[in-house]
Amino acid sequence: MQWREEKRMAAACNKLIHTDRRIVQIADELGYVKQMYFSRCFRKPMKMPPSNYRRQY
Fold first, then answer.
1. What is residue 48's DSSP assignment?
2. Chain centroid to CA 6: how far?
3. For the chain, what are the domain ranges?
4. Smallest Cα–Cα separation from 9: which of 50, 57, 55?
5. Are 23 and 50 in contact (CB under 8 A)?
6. pLDDT of 17-47, one tens digit each?
């Protein structure tokens, strides 16, 4: 389960940096039903929300 989440977060980071898709689209592509849940899951390992991650990188 943890391995799968790590892979999903790696894919999310890649998509946030290399595409201009909206965060809700990225969350949907990765199998998250709600954007808010995706943001919460993203924030735990990355220590920042997806929007800040995109701006930083």
1. S
2. 11
3. 2-56
4. 50
5. yes
6. 999 999 999 999 999 999 999 999 999 999 9
N-to-C CA span, the chain: 27
Chain centroid to Cα 54, Å, comes to: 10
CA distance 45 to 41: 8
Domain 2-56 - what CATH class?
mainly alpha
CB atoms within 10 A of CB 11: 13
d(CA 6, CA 21): 21
* Residue that the structure tokens 């991650």 belong to: 53
pTM over 0.85: yes
Distance, CA of 32 to CA of 21 (rounded, Å): 15
